[in-house]
Amino acid sequence: MADTARRSYDVVSSNPKKKRGSDEEEEEDKAYAIKSAKMTTTKHGDPAQALASARHEFGEHGGVNMSIEASATFTVMEADTMRRMFSGELGPDRDFFIYSRHFNPTVLNLARQMAAMEGTEAAYCTASGMAAISSVLLQVCGAGGHIVASNCVYGGTHALMAHFLPRACGIATTFVDAGDLGEVRAAVREGLTKVVYVETMSNPTLAVADIPGLSRLAKEKGIMLVVDNTFTPMVVSPARLGADVVVHSVSKFISGGADIIAGAICGPASLVNSMMDLQHGALMLLGPTMNAKVAFELSERLPHLSLRMKEHCDRALAYATRMRKMGLKVIYPGLEDHPNHGLLKSMANPGYGFGGMMCLDMGTEEKANRLMHHLQNSTQFGLMAVSLGYYETLMSCSGSSTSSEMSVQDKERAGISPGLVRMSVGYSGTVEQRWSQFEKALSRMQDEVSKN
């Protein structure tokens, strides 16, 4: 199994011609794979170009779409082949598969696409975003390890680090202001800290992480920088900026349909190898396996992710600009007065904008709820729901929903106001149609407040 793991670099972007022959053919296949992987990760700075250059799988009968390999287990023609697979002599790099909890051809294809998009050597696709996050942290930290994390992360991630990991395996986390590199540095415990963990754009406050600066600090300390890029696929490529590992809740913008739960881990081949180890691998042994049918659907959505992200970003900037002119307290990194506007501009891939997420701080939870009520029920501007990346605008009051796992003190430290409305800006309808709906809802809310 260890040998199979070492070959997983080939799995990232292997030769589309199936080769099961001589050692010479195997070496040719491996050489092609390494060359192809390097082209994917270094030649294209633009994630859409990298995706377009990745290997394209065809269907079993020549279909333009790949076939779905729905089998849980795979047969062999000779009994000795199974022994060779379990010993690591034969593996997915040469189209030998054992069991879909290990590798599945359809899921593997999606992993190649994710690695190409993020510019990493390897990737592995999981059943959820939290499965991706927890598996990475368990694998890298180990019992008694230590994490330095941003004090503003998704509520589920915060609960994992603050409560579950300490209880289950003695992994401690120090939460810091990730925008203060001095504070991050001071929190590192020599010999114990294994990971610096941040979100490219914090959930929900939209603070932007200085990925190049954090990368330099992590390398200096000999630790890993893990970045959650769920809010900004295509917009920012953390691995190209120095991040060691990039995780995603693929359920969000990448899926785009609010109908799939999925995750992904993108990073060095050595990490994916270790996570697939038969004796010690978090992915192999915990088994957060993605369904092949889900992987197929996601692979069909990735080609138009760049178009969708550009529209999400354009709409968010348009609405944020107009809301600011109305005197509302808007948080959006695309606005020049956002404290991290320049940082995001320096890190963003050209042409993608500043993200599809924005916030309105209404001051109190009551005002936030009144506004959302009218936005959904009176004017149909958007929907009150958690999650993000849908073609309709989704909105929630973060403090009492997606950040509810955090204590009042933790939310105050993170800058999460009780009246903070997080919006995932959709692209259905026209800008003017949706803006008219927003204005009407705001007017109704303000009339109610004035009467009271």
Automatic annotation (TrEMBL):
Source species, domain of life: Eukaryota
Modified residues (N6-(pyridoxal phosphate)lysine): 252
Listed GO MF terms: carbon-sulfur lyase activity; pyridoxal phosphate binding
UniProt KW Zinc-finger keyword: no
Entry's Gene Ontology BP terms: transsulfuration
Stored Gene3D superfamilies: Aspartate Aminotransferase, domain 1 (3.90.1150.10), Type I PLP-dependent aspartate aminotransferase-like (Major domain) (3.40.640.10)
Cofactor(s) the protein requires to work: pyridoxal 5'-phosphate
CDD domains: CGS_like (cd00614)
UniProt GO cellular component terms: cytoplasm
Pfam families: Cys_Met_Meta_PP
Sequence segments annotated as region (Disordered): 1-29
Keywords of the record: Pyridoxal phosphate
Similarity section: Belongs to the trans-sulfuration enzymes family.
Name of the protein described by the UniProt record: Methionine gamma-lyase
Phylogenetic placement of the source organism: Eukaryota, Viridiplantae, Streptophyta, Embryophyta, Tracheophyta
